[in-house]
Design brief:
By secondary structure, the protein is α+β, with helices and mostly antiparallel strands. Helix content is about 60%, strand content about 5%. It has helices at about 10-25, 30-35, 50-60, 95-100, 100-115, 120-145, 150-155, 160-200, 205-215, 245-250, 260-265, and strands at about 40, 65-70, 80, 90-95. The chain has a four-stranded mixed sheet with strand order 1-2-4-3, with helices on both faces.
Length: about 270
């Protein structure tokens, strides 16, 4: 196979395909996520409270009213997506609408609109793209190292062997490090969205109660998967061994611990 930088080869084709898919993923990220989640447009009659809460928060925050969607799932959760306030979406589950009172629902929707206001939805799209590119480059580096191994062996070039080892290390570690950076950014933005939501509603207690209700609900969200989990208000995966999760495993959590979020909110109350 041709991995030469100067020629198009497989690497060039891979980069072109990656570039096109990255652009499509960024520009149509909201439609892709909504499609994966089987979300429907919020109904004016059936989802009246949701629409009313979002409209009030839109007026209070000065943000354009986002597109509103609903997932038919009894697990309570929500997320925001899109690329900017003019192309944003807030999506909630029917479980959230059924299990939370209006004050708690307002707090959750305010948190999601805070992600829009703070441009977290755009940041996470860009970070996801960068993580994807790093993984691609790591794969390319590994392939180049293996491709050059044959000629290096014949020439007994020790430098070639060192480059191959570095290529292996880079290929193995860089996607992990990139993912950790992505998760660290995601967790920090959750705290900021909580604070912004409180500034919009002036009711930290509403967000505290919502976090307690949602975290104590043990029903997993069927529509969520590993690709969309980091978008949600609270982790959609209900791990029964959550209390036994090690420090290392915590590094890969998409959300900060609920206790830490509540403790931070209680300081605002």
């Amino acid at each position: 196979m041709d991995y030469r930088v100067g020629g198009l080869g497989y690497v060039g084709i891979a980069l072109i395909i990656s570039g096109v898919s990255t652009f499509i993923s960024y520009y149509y990220s909201d439609k892709i996520v909504l499609s994966i989640s089987s979300a429907r447009v919020a109904n004016k009659a059936e989802d009246k409270i949701f629409r009313s809460v979002a409209e009030n928060l839109s007026i209070g925050s000065g943000l354009p009213l986002p597109k509103l969607y609903v997932i038919e799932d009894s697990a309570p959760n929500a997320f925001a997506t899109g690329r900017d306030p003019d192309h944003a979406v807030v999506c909630v589950t029917t479980g959230l609408l059924a299990k939370l009172n209006r004050t708690e629902l307002e707090a959750v929707v305010a948190h999601e609109m805070a992600h829009i206001k703070n441009y977290d939805i755009r940041l996470m799209s860009i970070v996801s793209v960068m993580v994807g590119l790093i993984a691609l480059l790591a794969d390319w580096f590994l392939r180049v190292s293996f491709h050059g191994r044959g000629s290096d062996r014949s020439e007994k070039n020790q430098l070639g062997a060192i480059i191959m080892i570095l290529g292996l290390v880079f290929a193995l570690l860089s996607p992990i490090i990139a993912s950790l950076i992505k998760l660290a950014i995601s967790r920090r933005r959750e705290f900021m969205a909580d604070a912004t939501a409180v500034s919009l509603t002036r009711q930290p207690q509403g967000l505290i109660l919502a976090l307690q209700k949602i975290s104590n609900d043990h029903e997993p969200l069927e529509a969520a998967n590993k690709a969309t989990a980091h978008l949600y208000f609270e982790s959609p995966f209900k791990d029964k061994s959550k209390s036994q999760v090690s420090w290392f495993s915590n590094l890969f959590n998409t959300h900060p611990p609920v206790k830490e979020r509540i403790a931070t909110l209680q300081k605002m109350a």
